[in-house]
């Protein structure tokens, strides 16, 4: 895959996507169950964002845990 000359050569034609109204738990479950690190967020057939593993982790961590996490990066 690293030898590909374009994104189109390695992308999936029908990627798993989420909508803005999915719960954070739903996104976390999808990521864990499918070993995804990021998911495109679609609305009305248009890409409106991308949610990543770190976005999910930051959202579900307590403030104390988040402070500890931020000090590590």
How does this structure look, described?
With 73 residues, this protein is α+β, with helices and mostly antiparallel strands. A hairpin with a 2-residue loop joins strand 1 (38-43) and strand 2 (46-52). The chain has three helices and two strands; from the N terminus they run αββαα. 40% of the residues lie in helices and 18% in strands.
Measured as a percent range, the helix fraction is 25-40%
The biggest sheet amounts to: 2 strands, antiparallel
Assembly state here? single chain
Strand order of the largest sheet: 1-2
| E-strand count | 2
- Low-confidence blocks of residues: none
Termini separation? 29 Å
Share of residues in strands = 15-25%
Secondary-structure-based class equals: alpha+beta
Give me the Rg, rounded: 15 Å
Number of discrete helical segments: 3
SSE order in H/E notation? Answer: HEEHH
Return the average pLDDT rounded to an integer. 87
Net shape = globular
């Amino acid at each position: 895959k690293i030898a590909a000359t374009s994104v189109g050569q390695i992308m999936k034609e029908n990627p798993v996507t989420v909508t803005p109204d999915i719960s954070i738990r739903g996104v976390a479950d999808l990521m864990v169950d499918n070993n995804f690190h990021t998911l495109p967020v679609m609305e009305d057939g248009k890409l409106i964002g991308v949610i990543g593993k770190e976005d999910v982790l930051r959202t579900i961590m307590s403030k104390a845990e988040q402070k500890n996490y931020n000090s590590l990066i």
